[in-house]
Amino acid sequence: MSRRIAVLRPEPGNRATASAIEARGYDAIRIPLFEVRALAWDAPDAGAFDALILTSANAIRHGGPGLSALLRLPVYAVGTATAEAARGAGFRVACVGTEDAEALVAAAETAGIRRALHLAGRERTLEAGGIVARVIPVYASEPEAPQDVARLAGSIALVQSARAGARLGHIVDAARIDRDGILLVAVSARAAEAAGQGWERVVVPDDLRSGALIEAAIALAD
Questions:
Q1: Helix and strand totals (H; E) in the chain
Q2: Quick one: DSSP state of residue 4?
Q3: What is the C-alpha to C-alpha distance for residues 207 and 8, in angstroms, rounded to an integer?
Q4: Full-model pTM
Q5: N or C terminus: fewer CB in 10 A for the chain?
Q6: How far apart are CA 164 and CA 31, in angstroms?
Q7: What is the DSSP string of 26-79?
Q8: Which residues are within 8 A (CB) of 164 and not within 5 positions of it... i.e. 6 or more apart?
Q9: 8 Å CB contact between 34 and 144
Q10: What is the DSSP string of 127-164?
């Protein structure tokens, strides 16, 4: 029997990821650890920047009407899901990073970007400095009380951020679930490190292509 795959990301991504897993014939457990909400923000003058850096599709989902003032800026995005959301909102995507935010910034600098605007979450890893001229938080991820945490036992958990990794470890320990019975598929080494030690196995896919975490989890499920 295949192992269950626990999807921990917030909605609406949770539903989309779980549905993709179920479409492949596997059992998905929907346990969102955070709820994402929009923050109030004012769009700056787009003329002050030469690129827009996005590390999450949530910046597009929750950016609101202020995004329209920035459509002239080319987008540098982490991951295909973020890039697809940006295109859907009318942006031109100049680069899709397959690693982390720091690697994306390095690629943007190599491409000649000198003053980038980063639309981000309130909790983030990338701050202003270097070519990142300004960071504006446009959404926040608030902890959500998870349901049916006992179902995490023996599962494969998809960890899509460092905060999710740390929170998963806390929830599992609080529920007295054995870590050594859970496999982690983490979006990055940082996310895996945040989850701590003691898991049955930890896998970090080589890149951030859309579906890479799902593919890695399915490979472990049987």
A1: 7, 11
A2: P
A3: 19
A4: 0.84
A5: N
A6: 11
A7: --EEE---EEEEE-------GGG-SEEEES-THHHHTTGGGGGGGTTSPEEEES
A8: 8, 9, 33, 34, 191
A9: yes
A10: -SBTTEEEEEEEEEEEE---S-GGGGTT-EEEE-SHHH
Residue that is written with structure tokens 């982690």 in the block: 184
Written as tens digits, the pLDDT of the chain (222 aa) is 689 999 999 998 899 999 999 999 999 999 999 999 999 999 999 999 999 999 999 999 999 999 999 999 999 999 888 999 999 999 999 999 988 899 999 999 999 999 999 999 999 989 999 999 999 999 999 999 898 899 999 999 999 889 999 999 999 999 999 999 999 999 888 899 999 999 999 999 986 666 889 999 999 998
Nearest to 174 by CA among 205, 203, 143: 143
Coil, strand or helix: which one is 45? coil
Plot region of 37 (φ>0 → left; ψ -120 to 50 → alpha; else → beta): beta
Please provide residue 101's backbone torsions phi and psi, each rounded to the nearest 5 degrees: -65, -40
How many CA atoms lie within 13 Å of 179's alpha carbon, on the beta-carbon side?
17
